[in-house]
Write a structure and sequence with these properties.
heterodimer, A: 15 helices, globular, B: alpha/beta, Coagulation Factor XIII, Chain A, domain 1, six-stranded mixed beta sheet
């Protein structure tokens, strides 16, 4: 497996080219280009803000210290969207490039990884907009101006999120070649995972003995860490970071191994 | 004289390394009776049943650096499969494949082209897919654009290209990839005449640069001229390997012999097509094309003896009949038409049955498909008793000759340089 990984570096230019292509074609035919991808998290944030702040007011929001529900959601939504878009995009990345797979050799993992990279670029740009937004809000609620102190944590959190995402992406991409309904299954599972992760709601404190079960979900640790760094402006919990790092590495190894095992026959099965 | 000894010395002293080695390669494909490509199906019906199809059965060959090798065979013989295994796109079940050096597989033009990207962007993407670095592509960009003749369209999205433009761009990029080993699958069959010539020239350039090339092609002529060696695959097995010329010959002979066998006893004649007319007092009841040894043949080599035997039945006494033959080539070219009268062979009278024999001592025809007509007319050559028009096919292969055209014309060449001592031409 190390061999295969090393082989990847020979193809790093092609990897970047694939990622560039992903980004280019997303925006080629659209007028607003990048702003469309920005619109997704913003719209989601607006809908949830409306639902939970006006339509259906959970009493404790202000009591829990959530002084800006939009920022609260976005801090969790941005990393989630990266994960979600990458996994969904990767699921069909091999079968969607069937003609290419049958005609040219390159390490097939370049496809799901390039999708993750392209989404990473989107994520980064969205973060910039988020930062601009938070600075504006910070003018009214000064506590947010301390964000600069916690940005360095992103250097730790982003790699963990990326490695986890790639691991899952490789797994689903490979499985989907043989079992085509995985792509539908993935959509449903991700939806379930979305609601099982504290994105639109704060970390539940009333789960009792089920807290451990709930926290098994790696996105819980990751999203909470991002929220700590981007919203609560506190040092992310060591437990969360440790758990998510280990999970990410294990997931990556597992996903990559499965991918390598299934890869040689892709050209026949796809 | 000294020059050729020197060349030979160099050839033997410098052993060219083997760059491609296929050793006992076996490959199967799963032929699913009914594909269950979904989790739901798998859980309900279990894994789908399949038959195993052996596409390659123990194929072994090796290629030295700088050599061009052709893989020939019918459709389904396994040639493209072998090429794809060399390209690491498919995986063999048994055996090993070893390639030294940078490999580029040209299995389809415009691999990875995305319709929304411009020609220029696709050149970079496609070039990258084929293994070129960005700087290499940038360096060759002008050459590529010029080769494709798409200068004014290079910045429009490829989805607006015609299929011809698409192909030209694809080939322009592909042909500028200069790997150590090039694998080509039938892409030479694409494009117009001028373009094909450009492509072939570029291939010759690559040969001169010492690149190793593996070609899969149905264009046996190209295989004979470009390839040094060839391998003939049939149903996954290697039937012949060796010099391109001999393997192509062997393959052609096999194909023709099989067609002869299919037509059964009616060997080299009696095809039911072409037209026939005549008053019928004399009927040509059988036509056979034979070689010098009397054997029925369909394929002849340039220079061989060709005999046509015509059985006839004259229902009444016919005085001074004229028997004739005509040979037409492809495109209906009338190559030769002669008869007993022109040849000053007069038959006095015939009644009942008999056989007329026509013989060409040394067939001067070069390779091609030919069709024979056999006729019997009255002495004035105006009234047809029986005219079999273009009914009997036969083929000619040139053997060792490379000449183009219809006929082989024996000739000699001589060079006279101004002012220097003249060397007579040396045969190779």
């Amino acid at each position: 497996m190390i061999e295969q990984f090393k082989n990847l570096f020979k193809y790093k230019e092609l990897l970047l080219n694939f990622a560039k292509k992903e980004l280019k074609i997303k925006y080629k035919n659209s007028v607003l280009g990048f702003f469309w991808s920005l619109l997704n998290p913003i719209l989601m944030m607006l809908v949830f803000t409306f639902v939970f702040t006006y339509a259906f007011k959970p009493q404790g929001l202000a009591k829990m210290g959530i002084d800006s529900y939009p920022l609260f959601i976005l801090a969790g939504l941005l990393p989630w969207n990266f994960f979600n878009a990458s996994v969904i995009g990767s699921t069909i990345s091999i079968v969607g490039n069937a003609s290419l797979i049958k005609k040219v050799y390159f390490p097939r993992e370049l496809l799901p990884i390039s999708i993750a990279l392209a989404n990473l670029v989107n994520f980064a740009l969205e973060l910039l907009v988020f930062l601009a937004f938070i600075v504006v809000i910070g003018l009214f609620k000064p506590r947010f101006l301390a964000i600069y102190k916690f940005l360095p944590f992103l250097l730790l959190l982003l790699p963990i999120l990326f490695i986890l995402t790639v691991g899952v992406s490789l797994l689903v991409a490979a499985l989907n070649v043989y079992l085509r309904d995985i792509q539908h299954l993935v959509g449903i599972l991700l939806l379930m995972l979305f609601y099982s992760t504290p994105i639109i709601y704060p970390m539940p404190t009333n789960l009792g003995k089920y807290t451990a079960l709930y926290s098994l979900n790696p996105m819980v640790s990751i999203v909470m860490s991002f929220k700590n760094a981007l919203f609560w402006l506190a040092v992310p919990s060591l437990h969360f970071i440790a758990y998510s790092s280990v999970f990410a590495i294990v997931m990556f190894l597992f996903g990559y191994l499965i991918f390598i095992r299934l890869e040689p026959d892709f050209a026949e099965e796809v | 004289m000294m020059a050729s000894i020197w060349d030979k010395a160099i050839d033997t002293a410098v052993e060219r390394p083997t760059v491609i080695e296929a050793d006992d390669v076996w490959k199967t494909f799963k032929v699913y009776k009914e594909r269950n490509p979904s989790l739901k199906e798998m859980l309900i019906r279990g894994r789908s049943a399949y038959d195993t199809f052996w596409a390659l059965k123990g194929v072994s060959f090796s290629v030295k650096q700088g050599s061009t090798i052709g893989l020939i065979g019918e459709n389904g013989s396994g040639k493209s499969t072998m090429l794809k295994i060399l390209a690491r796109i498919l995986r063999q079940q048994r055996g090993s494949v070893r390639i030294v050096g940078k490999v580029s597989a040209l299995l389809e033009l415009g691999a990875g082209f995305h319709p929304d990207l411009t020609g220029r962007e696709n050149v970079f993407l496609n070039g990258s897919i084929l293994g070129l670095t960005k700087s290499e592509i940038a360096g060759k960009l002008d050459r590529i654009i010029r080769f494709s003749e798409l200068d004014q369209f290079i910045d429009t999205p490829v989805k607006n290209y015609s299929s011809g433009m698409y192909v030209r761009l694809g080939f322009a990029v592909a042909i500028n990839v200069e790997p150590d080993v090039l694998l080509i699958d039938e892409i030479l069959a694409v494009g117009d005449e001028a373009f094909q010539r450009k492509c072939l020239n570029k291939l010759y350039d690559l040969k001169e640069q010492g690149k190793t090339i593996v070609v899969v092609s149905h264009a046996l002529e190209s295989v004979r001229s470009i390839c040094d060696e060839a391998v003939w695959l049939e149903h996954g097995e290697m039937k012949a390997e060796g010099s391109a010329r001999s393997v192509v010959e062997t393959y052609l002979e096999h194909v023709n012999r099989r067609e002869e066998a299919k037509s059964g006893q009616k060997g080299g004649a009696e095809e039911e097509f072409g037209t026939r007319w005549g008053s019928g007092e004399v009927k040509i009841t059988g036509v056979r094309i034979l070689d010098g040894g009397g054997k029925k043949r369909k394929l002849f080599k340039t220079g061989e003896t060709l005999i046509v035997e015509m059985d006839y039945e004259a229902s009444e006494e016919i005085r001074r009949p004229v028997f004739g033959i005509a040979i037409h080539g492809r495109d209906g070219v009338h190559i030769n038409g002669t008869n007993t009268k022109f040849s000053k062979t007069i038959f006095d009278k015939i009644k009942g049955s008999g056989t007329v024999k026509y013989m060409i001592e040394a067939l001067p025809l070069l390779k091609g498909n030919y069709v024979l007509s056999t006729v019997v007319y009255d002495f004035a050559c105006l009234h047809a008793y029986d005219h079999h028009d273009r009914r009997y096919l036969f083929n000619v292969s040139s053997g060792d000759l490379d000449d183009y055209g219809i006929f082989y014309l024996p000739c000699a060449w001589e060079l006279k340089k101004k002012g220097k001592r003249n060397d007579p031409a040396r045969p190779i």
